[in-house]
């Protein structure tokens, strides 16, 4: 038996806004950040659970406070008990009768639960000596459905239907695991397409993306129509007719505006339109999807929980479902969402980028291929070449594919030195930065 | 010109769980709490802006941290500028490009924005020497639509349509103000109906409600069907056939379960079924509404923002819209929601109770009667007889009606002594409580 003896949170922020990496129509100046969590036990095996919520700067302190508020659920507890029944552990956190009021099941508090749950999965996978995708991919259908809270889902997916999906995928698990290790899982890249980049940089990066083996790139759109047309023309010229180009409006439009705007972009051959409007607007997405068909609508990085995804599927509001490793309440809820997508026959193309999102979410797509949907058809994981060096197990992307991690864990562990350097406001980087600013202020004043 | 010189937050908690006041199928043990905010300027007039987010205990610290994170938007700013264009102030807060990631527009961060916005409205009303309902009710239609962010609403309500609604209601404003002051605004009471109460207490309180002039009571349901049937029978026997009885499941059911359960309760004459399932489930509410008609479906206290309300109305998912003073981003967003309800011809019956929710939300219903819908038909404000003594301007409810406050402000100011006594964990009450528990622990140990 081992006891959780430390639950440590850190407010980690990277100064990405200075390079306009990650700039889009709604997020002009993100500082990619992580509200970070480390769970330590007295087991003596040196294994720890790490998890985080990705944010884009201000408010990372609030998210860190929310994770800290969950400490009593973990600290001093029997680790084996917490890890043995992750379905029960999830419910205990998500159904806290008082904390629930702050959502329910959405926003700051729900994402904080996700960080705790993901940290526990990281620890569980390390103890099993397996990467998370493989740990999940070896669980029985019964064990997997026990992870899922079916409350509010049963009008679209029952426990029995979920079991049927998982049983149907069981026979091919070993073969698909071998395929995955040999071929990897397709990725696509958003690196060329940030709004803040010049056309020259876009063109250069689009060429590089094709050379690197990617079959799809993605461009941010939605700030200015003429700019979008010019940038899409440049991108199409750079990549040729075969490479897919998706576009992403980051929630910029109302329904009618989305439909009209996409009418002007359709000629460039659009692989999907991502986040055309509010992530809360199920009926709005459905109206847009009907109007812009056959262009598929993609969304999910800001979809708050499984209940909204359920409705998006019921209403045929999305044709590409984009899970995110840190938006919902962790691995358990993402398993529920993968099962919903499988039930409705919708492809899953995860949102990634940010800090550690690629490292974490790849496990879910790979698990989905091995044990849920059983297919990679039309599916790919977003790739952005940012900040991977800060992770203990950085992604291995080459030839346009993610290659499966073989290191035990869930991928969310950051290097201790990176945490120390970028903790806000007292880490080495931010202290030095504050000093530089003071010097500059003095120089300006002089 | 005056400057905001202090923004003070407090984590205020009342130990309501000890009496089972406020107990329902999802919230068995709430400690009614307020993440509280006080805004002070250097104007020298002694007027302050007060606002809060209502929570039910744990997590009130996280909500308080979220409000504190908004301090830079207020502290050191020119108060006249902030108050002069409340529409611009709202957008500045709600559209912060980094904080937005924590929602967008939902949960902890969105409610925190509501506290700041409501505190500013409280100050603005005090400076105008008017209760908030009257300040709003004297603004021109143009000024009122300028408060509203129409982003994501235009497929259901445009600025021009909103203006039309407000212009149509303009002629009768003075007469309806006089009516309101003379007759009050109808209330209904939830006091008899908490799940934790015995049948005897329920019956006694139901009798008292009728004697007090209420035309509707509400019962919590959803934990156990046989209990619900027995309690409804007792309530109906107590109040007779004329008084309306609404029921509230507090999100307890899935769609099919809600429909089946309500089939068993219909015989008691149900005025509405409130929160039958997840507040995020627009399509689920619509399915339930179709199945249980003519019983109306009511929801809103946990509806996160105007985008979800819009869809609830588009889908005919609710027939009674329940605004809440502290769930969305303050007065501005509630004005948007009142306009949406008016557009769709749906009645608004606010959620109240908690801490200060009655004091705050009455202003919105009264404003709606004076300047938006122009009617009280089928409308009433929830009344719970809890914790009003802690407010500087407690509600005035008699003869089953809320009588309009005439004191300047938005109603959200708590007595300084109450804040001091119930601040957690260092206020007088909680310190004494901790000492008592220590003594009890020692006695048990002995």
Q: Proportion of β residues of chain A?
A: 15-25%
Q: Do you know the CATH topology of the largest domain in chain A?
A: TIM Barrel
Number of domains of chain A: 2
Largest sheet of chain A: 10 strands, mixed
CATH homologous superfamily of the largest domain in chain A? Enolase-like C-terminal domain
Quaternary structure state of the chains depicted: homodimer
Shape of chain A: globular
Question: Which bin fits the share of residues in helices of chain A?
Answer: 40-55%
> Taking Cα atoms only, what radius of gyration of chain A do you get, to the nearest Å?
21 Å
Number of strands of chain A: 13
Q: Which structural class do you get from the secondary structure elements of chain A? A: alpha/beta
Q: Taking all residues together, what is the mean pLDDT of chain A? A: 96
| Main CATH class of the largest domain in chain A | Alpha Beta
What would you say this structure looks like, in words?
The structure is a homodimer of 446-residue chains. Chain A is built from 17 helices and 13 strands. Chain A has 446 residues and is α/β, with parallel strands linked by helices. In chain A, the strands form 2 sheets. In chain A, strands 4, 5, 6, 7, 8, 9, 10, 11, 12 and 13 form a 10-stranded mixed sheet that branches. A 3-stranded antiparallel sheet of chain A has the order 1-2-3. The N and C termini of chain A lie far apart (64 Å). In chain A, helix 9 (199-211) links the parallel strand 4 and strand 5 (216-220). The first copy, chain A, is 44% helix and 15% strand. In chain A, helix 5 runs parallel beside helix 15. Chain A is globular and about 60 Å long. The first copy, chain A, has helices spanning 60-69, 79-84, 86-94, 107-128, 132-138, 141-145, 159-169, 173-183, 199-211, 225-239, 255-265, 282-292, 306-314, 330-344, 357-372, 416-422, 428-445, and strands spanning 4-13, 33-41, 48-55, 185-193, 216-220, 244-248, 270-274, 297-299, 320-321, 347-348, 381-383, 396-398, 401-403. Chain A has 2 domains: 4-138, Enolase-like, domain 1; 169-416, TIM Barrel, CATH 3.20.20. Chains A and B meet through helix 1, helix 4, helix 12 and helix 13 of A and helix 1, helix 4, helix 12 and helix 13 of B.
